[in-house]
Amino acid sequence: MKPFLLLATRAEDRPADDEYALFQRFTGLASRDLVRVRMEAGPLGAIDLDDYSGIFVGGGPFNASDPPEKKSAVQRRVEAEFASLLDDVVARDFPFFGACYGVGTLGTHQGAVIDGTFREPISVIDVALTPEGAADPVLAGMPETFAAFVGHKEAITVLPPSATLLVRGDGCPVQMFRVGQNVYATQFHPECDVEGISTRIRVYAGHGYFGEGELDATLEAVRRLPVVHTGSILRRFTERYGR
């Protein structure tokens, strides 16, 4: 089998390494089968899609909707690299799964409106399959409604015509979408468990995801419902596209 590629953007080692371990756990991929590139560390370079079975994108600190003057040089470089890569991915309908930051990258590439209208506090919420989601092979076997980890400063307000809505939420309408037949992005975090998201909560305290003095309440919020189904989405993607 050709390896999968994980594109990561977290600068902090602990959450970055935890994210890689979680992707391994939920995909079932060994280290040799999941190649990680930390894009924040340096230029991505040329990516030959023929070398990989598919691409995963993890979460990260960058917000697509930030004004250009507030974006760091690293963020601008990463965004440009994603735009170029997605030109090829979308044109070929190449297997791609963007978790969290996938909404910012793929959504921006497709012309979605992304802003803070539907920002979500860090928590666990119930989300629901659309009819198109219920028919999608990567979501096969998922219950009609399931719990998922969320927590974002921005989200898609207007989905572009090229995208198919697969999972919706009450407070944030676009939770998962597909472009073509093989290119996916989620707003929620299918790569997380309670321990993983708790690590991120502690590391990113003071980064604007919750207020001062709200650490304990935020840690409790991610335990309000059991999250038991979302990781299987990554496993089904891997099984479908591993080759």
Automatic annotation (TrEMBL):
Domain of life of the source? Bacteria
Which UniProt key words apply to this protein? Answer: Glutamine amidotransferase
Which Pfam family, any one, appears in the UniProt record? GATase
State whether keyword Signal applies.
no
Keyword Chaperone listed? The answer is: no
Which positions fall inside the Glutamine amidotransferase domain? 49-192
The cross-references to InterPro entries, in alphabetical order and at most eight, read:
ChyE-like, Class_I_gatase-like, GATASE
Name this protein carries in UniProt = Glutamine amidotransferase
Q: Which organism is it from?
A: Microbacterium memoriense
